[in-house]
């Protein structure tokens, strides 16, 4: 009888456990930039949360504290086309909230190099790459991330709007960025999903010209009137600007915060609430 009760208890624990969702709070950093507490080897650090980052980064100082020796070189490009390089380190286990995120590799790079010097120090960047194999809901309006389970996602599916998306893995297949389709005049334009873009919704000069928002493809930044873009069955409005960037466009924090987005990294699907 005891064995039977124990078996039933373990079975119920497993079933209920699969229904559990983990909520990760986002903390204020600067303007709309958010940070997340990340624990590595028992030490807690503050990382920026940036869905447009492509790679998860740890500062060289943290790498030294943890006893890692960085190696090799990775090369990446910022949206402006600016090239930068970084080193790598292997087998890093990040813990966010109660969830562990084993990382095959992370980049070693000091994000403070591109932030204003008067801002508080952050120790790294948490990107979408860290959530590979997970199902993640991004809810900026409520300052939280939510790790979905197969059960919780299945319960919501009929209420979610699927979005056409692309999952990009970078030059060497080691990054992870998400692009969403924006339809305009019957054509598909692909915008980087970038919570770290706290300025305007960005359009390339070619995109802005094709949309009739500027007369040429000049390399100078141009401020545009607020525009509405169609995502799924909704129109979201944001201040906008045209810049010389690598992509058709880049979504910004203001626009992303107007909805909730769920990303299934296992099936490479994106939905909007």
From TrEMBL:
Domain of life: Bacteria
Signal peptide: 1-20
CDD domains with a match to the protein in the record: retropepsin_like_bacteria
Entry coiled-coil feature ranges: none
SUPFAM superfamilies documented for this protein: Acid proteases (SSF50630)
Example GO biological process: proteolysis
Keywords: Hydrolase, Protease, Signal
Name of the protein in its database record: Aspartyl protease
Species this protein is from: Pontibacter ramchanderi
């Amino acid at each position: 009888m005891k064995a039977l009760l124990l078996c039933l208890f373990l079975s119920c624990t497993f079933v209920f456990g699969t229904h559990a969702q983990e909520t990760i709070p986002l903390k204020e950093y600067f303007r709309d930039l958010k940070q997340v507490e990340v624990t590595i080897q028992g030490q807690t650090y503050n990382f920026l949360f940036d869905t447009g980052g492509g790679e998860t980064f740890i500062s060289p100082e943290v790498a030294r504290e943890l006893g890692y020796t960085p190696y090799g070189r990775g090369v990446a490009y910022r949206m402006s086309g600016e090239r930068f390089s970084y080193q790598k380190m292997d087998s890093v286990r990040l813990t966010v909230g109660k969830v562990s995120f084993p990382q095959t590799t992370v980049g070693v790079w000091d994000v403070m190099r591109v932030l204003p010097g008067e801002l508080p120090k952050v120790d790294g960047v948490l990107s979408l790459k860290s959530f590979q194999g997970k199902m993640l809901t991004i809810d900026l309006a409520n300052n939280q991330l939510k790790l979905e389970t197969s059960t919780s996602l299945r319960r919501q599916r009929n209420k979610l709007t699927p979005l056409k998306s692309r999952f990009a893995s970078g030059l060497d297949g080691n990054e992870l960025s998400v692009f969403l389709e924006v339809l305009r005049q019957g054509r598909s334009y692909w915008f980087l999903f970038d919570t770290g873009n706290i300025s305007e919704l960005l359009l390339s000069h070619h995109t802005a010209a094709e949309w009739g928002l500027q007369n040429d493809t000049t390399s100078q930044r141009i401020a545009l009137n607020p525009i509405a873009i169609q995502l799924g069955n909704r129109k979201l409005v944001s201040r906008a600007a045209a810049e010389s960037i690598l992509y058709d466009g880049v979504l910004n924090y203001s626009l992303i915060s107007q909805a909730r987005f769920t990303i299934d990294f296992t099936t490479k699907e994106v939905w909007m609430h």
